[in-house]
């Protein structure tokens, strides 16, 4: 009996230790799964934005991007707002330059204009197929993994003491830095978790923009360059 009691005590101690480690293992697995989704989605979104209006996409962003805000100046996707109805509108908003003049034209710095702060609210493009379209169950869709993306389309860094030099003017007009900062998870109460990761790339080509009557849309043109020094 003594040996049996000792054996049970040892087994009990081992089980307590194993049970105590299980939550840690589950959390690590959850974090790894979310980071994998973020890395995959970052590649998809960055390539879609870099390709501009010429991108074939291959998927419908309207199934995943459900809201876009910019400095409180406008809000698309909330409530009855149905503006985000095609890929071009979504890409056009996500490509908004950080600095624009009063008419909406891109600027090399904040002098004489204002800054934009574009945030997209996204349901994961990667992840379980059960959460993806044509899933129509609101409980499943609202409970799927989501995140925010801060989209920054900034001018290439140049010497501010010689902004008007021919070389710097060409760089500013034809080279841009695209930064996508992911924050996750997006919580049901409207807050966002503490996880954060930033992806950066350089995009060559000019930016074209248009006003469709509701919002100003911007598109990278990776195969088109402008000569700002031409007479």
Tell me about this structure.
The chain is 31% helix and 29% strand. It has 231 residues and is an alpha+beta fold. The strands form three sheets. It has a six-stranded antiparallel β-sheet. Strand 7 (175-186) and strand 8 (192-204) form a beta hairpin.
TL;DR of this structure?
This protein is an alpha+beta fold and 231 residues long. It has helices spanning 2-51, 87-94, 138-142, 166-174, and strands spanning 65-70, 74-76, 99-100, 114-115, 118-123, 146-155, 175-186, 192-204, 206-211, 216-221.
Order of helices and strands: HEEHEEEHEHEEEE
Anisotropy-based shape:
elongated
Overall SS class? alpha+beta
Rg over CA atoms, rounded to whole Å, is: 24 Å
Q: Span between N and C termini?
A: 101 Å
Strand order of the largest sheet: 2-1-5-6-7-8
In total, the number of strands is 10
Mean pLDDT: 84
User: Into how many domains do the coordinates divide?
Assistant: 1
| Share of helix, binned | 25-40%
Major β-sheet, in short?
6 strands, antiparallel
Write the layout of secondary structure elements.
Layout (H helix, E strand, L loop, with lengths): L1 H50 L13 E6 L3 E3 L10 H8 L4 E2 L13 E2 L2 E6 L14 H5 L3 E10 L10 H9 E12 L5 E13 L1 E6 L4 E6 L10
Antiparallel strand pairs: 1-2, 1-5, 3-4, 5-6, 6-7, 7-8, 9-10
Features:
4 helices; elongated; six-stranded antiparallel beta sheet; two-stranded antiparallel ribbon; 231 residues; 29% strand; alpha+beta
